[in-house]
Amino acid sequence: MVDTVRTEPAPSRGRPPLRSIVVWTLVAVVGAVSWGVVALVRGEEISALWLLAAALGSYAIAYRFYARFIVRRVLKVDDTRATPAETLRNDTDYQPTDRRVLFGHHFAAIAGAGPLVGPVLAAQMGYLPGTLWIVVGVIFAGAVQDMVVLFFSMRRNGKSLGQMAREEIGVVGGVAALIGVFTIMIILLAVLALVVVNALADSAWGTFSIAMTIPIALFMGFYLRTLRPGQVIETSLIGVALLLLAIVGGGWVQDSSWADAFTLSPEALVVALVVYGFVASVLPVWMLLAPRDYLSTFMKIGTIVLLAVGLLLARPTLQNEAITEFASTGDGPVFAGSLFPFVFITIACGALSGFHALIASGTTPKLIEKESQVRMIGYGGMLMESFVAISALIAASVIDPGLYYAMNAPAGFLGDSLESASEAVAGLGFAISPDQLAAAAASVEESTLVARTGGAPTLAVGMSQIFTDGFGVGAQAFWYHFAIMFEALFILTTVDAGTRVGRFMLQDTLGNVWKPMRDVSWKPGLWLTSAVVVAAWGYFLWAGVTDPLGGINQLFPLFGIANQLLAAIALTVVTTILIKTGRLKWAWVTGIPLLWDAAVTLTASWQKVFSDDPGLGFFAQRERFSEALADGEVLPPARSLDDMEQVVTNSTVDGILAAFFALLVVIIIADAARVCVRALRDPSKATSTEAPYVESTLVAPSGLIPTRRERELMAAASRPGGDGGGGRHARPGADGDGGSLR
């Protein structure tokens, strides 16, 4: 059964205006030349601006042409059709939301640790592999997944990814998807929250500034809803001013008598995060979640734009190699494994991320006003995150390689002194003296930068160097701590949105057994499922904080693989829907990314489970540490026999979960293939779970800048006596263009 599509015929089109042809030709030429320099120049340092130009040119062309093609031809968006935000409005989860606010919420929710940390770690392979995957991957895989999942969830009243899999694939694959998606999400949320805790622990400045975003967001929510409805720009200006004041105030608090009140231990931060996650999940979305994410987006996008300006002013050269020897040997000190598949696992959220599919089938489809807005919010939001990833890769590649490896290699490899760290880095082929290591730490007012693993400190050093050289104002220490706070804020917004999405998923799943649980407006179900979700990720978070060896070592190796396996599930679901709804000729749009992602993730899972290299395989590591433990020997990174036992436990859990997740994905793909073959053989038996068509009465632009036609319709609807029903004609030109990049 083909999905119901009601569209007006597109007007006949003549030749594009000469100005448009010239502009897009120039964009293509600049992008092509930049790619040529990035890919071909060897043996000399090149400017980081070539990476920036190659990425931006590719993003612009992809949004203008490829995303528009998918919206018009594959999805066939229909702005005469009411979205669930309009038909199911309850002012708690379903709420028509201005596209600018929703873009902010969606971007803030999807942009977490991945685009910041992943590219920094992947710089071990060189700047070229990461750049290619970040740009090409987002254009043809990541942004496509986000937009298509958002569209199909919106057409199904905002159902979660797991529930869509259950209804579209069937019992076997659907149940596997429900279990896999929810379990993977708990792991992802725990890792994201752990990064936040590590960034904010014992930091009065960061904790105060981020805590202040909560009352600011509450004020914005009530201001926009009751005091000045519809005044988005006015509310935004007030919110940004208060946010800047909170950032500056953090510095004052850090040097005042209030510092102790905001200097929290890791354990205290866990409790605060769990409480906040629960409250943010149960409050109406307009009150806290949407305005806070919108506010955070100003900080996120503003800082990245500031970084781009800093790059233009500083014009740094890339110190990293295009392709390092670790790409082929697979024995790098930052992470083990060869270029394929592990660079595609390490760089997750900047190119393709399964976590995004949870947001695109969670909060966002319940808030979007018009179907045509999926292009701006789904595809455009992911392009913005990819730009964050490119910026992070550049920041990691402009610092001295010796410092990069001194920061990102494990403590067991570097030793306990600056001298031993210098010698270890020299063994990798890079030179940095103990005095240089001490000077680097002093420049950012840190006691040491040695073995500051995880990627976030390295990114902060790179950003602070670019800001200092580019703007020439402020000490590098100020910019370093500003970047640390930025990273914490960047990640925290994914925790609250992710908790809400986890609640939706759990309600959908339990609703298969007891229907009242599926009603997102039923308060007891809302509170119960929210408590279960925060308790689940809170448990793993507490374990990671109280025992870092058993926390980050247990969870982080699974983060990349689990995230990309989740993307495989999402791409499987939407490809199945395309085939079942009579769009076989367009199934390649999501089918090709699915095949690539499945090959990458299943290969990585196989190696992590079955490799006999203790540095790569979980069970090989378990065997090595078990044998040493039996002999009473302590191996790095363990420092005691208790730590040795913990490593054995961690390796066992990692191996079992990696194998379990991979098995679930194989089951889902196999069952989906069966459903697709059956639908192709007998299309009459193919069923669709799409919600019935309801005519829209809303008027809203499809893109950032309204078209002339959209402005006329909005003006007519706002006049006294207007019918307010212009939304059924408020089409994006007639093709979902939105006018912002014509």
CATH class: Mainly Alpha
| CATH architecture term | Up-down Bundle
CATH superfamily: Amino acid/polyamine transporter I
Question: SS-based structural class?
Answer: mainly alpha
Largest sheet: none
Helix-strand string: HHHHHHHHHHHHHHHHHHHHHHHHHHHHH
Number of separate domains? 1
Number of helices: 29
End-to-end Cα distance: 34 Å
The global form is: globular
Return residue spans where pLDDT drops below 50 for at least 5 consecutive residues: 1-12, 723-742
What percent strand? Answer: under 5%
Compute the number of strand runs. 0
Domain CstA N-terminal: 48-604
Membrane topology: Multi-pass membrane protein
InterPro entries: CstA, CstA_N
Organism: Jiangella ureilytica
Task: Note the main attributes of this structure.
742 residues; mainly alpha; Amino acid/polyamine transporter I; 29 helices; 68% helix; 0% strand; disordered N terminus; disordered C terminus; Carbon starvation protein A
Structure notes:
- With 742 residues, this protein is mainly alpha-helical.
- It has one domain (75-202, 264-681): Amino acid/polyamine transporter I.
- 68% of the residues lie in helices and 0% in strands.
- The chain has 29 helices and no strands.
- Helix 7 (161-168) runs antiparallel to helix 8 (171-200), helix 7 (161-168) crosses helix 25 (548-580) and helix 17 packs across helix 22.
- The longest helix has 41 residues, at 641-681.
- The chain starts with 17 loop residues before the first helix and ends in a 24-residue tail after the last helix.
- The model is unreliable at 1-12 and 723-742 (pLDDT under 50).
